[in-house]
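INTERNAL AUDIT FORM
Audit reference: QA-55
Scope: verify that the stored structure record matches its stored sequence.
Auditor: D.O.
Record contents follow.
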Amino acid sequence: MLQQDHLFEWRTILKNILLGPEINGTLTRAKEELALQLLKDYGLYRFKDKKPWELSGGMRQRAALIRTMVMEPELLLLDEPFSALDYQSRLMVSGDIGRIIKSAGITALLITHDLSEAISLADRIIVLSKRPATVKRQIDISLSLTDNSPLAARNAPEFKDYFSLLWKEISDEYEPKSCT
């Protein structure tokens, strides 16, 4: 799932979601039923016959996620999936997508430059160095919360400590070098 939803404006939401199986030649009644169930589960069923331009940015991102999930991946790669959204939508959609992924039991790899987003959504954060990228550090995230929403995570007592730790890790890469 990419930064932009890449939904085709001339296809309905349901037809967009079924594009992968259609292209792969794996479109079956079972895939159609899965798509319809995912639309129901994630609050988009009544929009299945709408065109993408009729949906909000957050709804489009959920449709893009459903399009990915209908392929039943073992690993979900999310490359800055919320970057095109305004801050409020970003918080709400990231929470929705985080819940969807956790309830589906899919392993997801989220690429983000937003430290708060990483802390509030991840179980583990892998910090990469500058190019050529190497793993600089791995940080397991454990927040003492009953509400696992991204907004609640930002109020967890440990949040600021993780943020400071991550900030130090990435800012070390950008410290000016002295010239002698």
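Auditor finding: record pair retrieved intact. The helical segments are 13-17, 19-24, 29-41, 57-69, 87-104, 115-121, 150-153, 159-171.
Action required: none
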